[in-house]
Amino acid sequence: MKIIDARVIVSSPGRNLVTLKIETEDGISGIGDATLNGRELAVVAYLQDHVVPCLIGRDARRIEDIWQYLYRGAYWRRGPVTMTAIAAVDVALWDIKAKAAGMPLYQLLGGRSREGALAYGHADGRNLEEALASVEKYRKAGYRAIRVQCGLPDIEKVYGVHVGEGPYEPAQRGLPEEERWSTPAYMRFVPTLFAAVRENFGEEVALLHDVHHRLTPNEAARVGKDLEPYRLFFMEDATPAENQEGFRLIRRATTTPLATGEVFNSVWDAKALITEQLIDYVRATIVHAGGISHMRTIASLAGLYGVRTGFHGATDLSPVTLGAAIHFDTWLPNFGIQEYMAHAEETMQVFSHGHRFEDGYLIVSEAPGHGVEIDEAKAALYPYQPAYLPVNRLEDGTVWDW
Ligand code: GCO
Ligand code: MG
Question: Which ligand approaches the C-alpha of residue 341 most closely?
Fold first, then answer.
């Protein structure tokens, strides 16, 4: 089953998304997501200039060999650009293999382990009142797990909180915007937020929160302790995880469950975190961590240490990644939770799939492959728009983690 064509589709239906389509001599094609938010064109060039020429003529059935060829064979390893490009190839090849077998992808992975994947939605508000109203909306929509983010007094823009109409979207067209951040204001406010949410919505709903890399390990330990009474499902990215050992300090101080890893691209980014049981959920995901093949390695290692997955699922991960993730979640024994943000209407004019959200769970479609298709003619209607994630500064102007 020779690969006869591979092309990169860059489109901006609501936001920039990059897709790789691989075609085989048998007429079966597959697609993979290659979107790296704010750095899209670096992956496009990596694929077009260095990967696609090496794919033509290879046997599409040899997924593992092609993965090793692109990873080991490149000499230069890891990094978000490389691993996103490899992921796009890998997911497209799994899509092709599953279509050739006439099976939904989860069947090839080992079959169903659950009926649906528990999903969490994003509640947010510019102030406490709005945040509570947003939680209410997600409860009514059937969510059993809800992430809660809230604006801070005297801070104009806060991560995870929408401005204007429509859902939160951090990437903005044009050059990067700059935001201001106050750690003390955040640390004072966040326990109040979760006290109010528990008071209004009771003990049953699973609550999550994303600190988005803003704290030092010791500050994270403090916040983890302060949030213990509200029994979070997890506290995410409490501190940047480049220094994996930094999590020892947080872990010793609090029983609030910890999640990290949406920016990870390899098992090496998570090795100490997993083997030392410093986290409860690993958030590395298919598109940025080398595809299904490498995510299996990360998830299997995690399984040995009682760590579960909590795949990143913001809108900059295209419907193709979401589709592949729902298959993975349906199979993986140590699945934990799936982040779920519905894509914009324009995005869903370009991509189609049969996966569905029902009663708090994502239910996998039975279509062969990963079940997500792209309409290339519609994609062409939305040309690429330069857009960037914001840059963060402390109140005194120091550049900080966003
Ligand atoms: C999340 C994430 C996102 C990221 C975004 C960056 O937990 O969903 O933190 O909001 O910031 O995906 O590209
Ligand atoms: Mg996050």
Answer: 1
What pLDDT is stored for residue 99 in this prediction? 98
Average pLDDT over residues 149-166: 89
Query: Which of 63-67's residues contact partners 24+ apart within 8 Å by CB, and which partners?
Result: 63/90, 63/93, 63/94, 63/97, 63/293, 64/293, 66/90, 66/93, 67/290, 67/291, 67/293, 67/294
User: Measured from the CB, is residue 40 less than 6 Å from ligand 1?
Assistant: no
CA distances from 348 to 143, 342, 360, 373, 387 (A): 21, 9, 21, 10, 20
Query: Rounded CA gap, 15 and 373, in Å?
Result: 18
163 — pLDDT class (breaks 50, 70, 90): confident
| Spatial distance between the Cα atoms of 94 and 90, rounded to a whole number of angstroms | 6
DSSP H or E stretch at residue 388:
strand 387-388
According to the model, what pLDDT value does residue 251 have?
98
**Residue 374 and residue 67: Cα distance in Å, rounded?**
23
Q: Find, among 81, 91, 93, 83, the residue nearest to 44 by Cα.
A: 81
Residue range 276-309, pLDDT digits in tens: 999 999 999 999 999 999 999 999 999 999 999 9
- Two tokens, residue 161: 């909180």
User: Can you read off the two tokens belonging to residue 264?
Assistant: 């990870």
Distance, in Å, from the CA atom of 100 to the CA atom of 398, rounded to the nearest integer, reads 54
* Residue 392, helix vs strand vs coil: strand
**Could you give the percent of the chain with pLDDT greater than 90?**
97
> Is residue 236 within 8 Å of residue 210, measured between CB atoms?
yes
Look up tokens 């949406």; give the residue: 262
Domains of the chain in sequence order: 3-103 (3.30.390.10), 108-367 (3.20.20.120)
Q: What number does the ligand 1 atom closest to the CA of 37 have?
A: 13
Average pLDDT over the chain reads: 97
Ligand closest to 39 (CA) is 1
- Among 379, 400, 368, residue whose Cα is nearest residue 30: 368
Q: Which residues are catalytic?
A: 159, 212
Q: Whose CA is nearest to atom 5 of ligand 1?
A: 314
**What tokens appear for 195 in the block?**
């006290």
**pLDDT per residue over 183-235, tens digit each?**
999 999 999 999 999 999 999 999 999 999 999 999 999 999 999 999 999 99
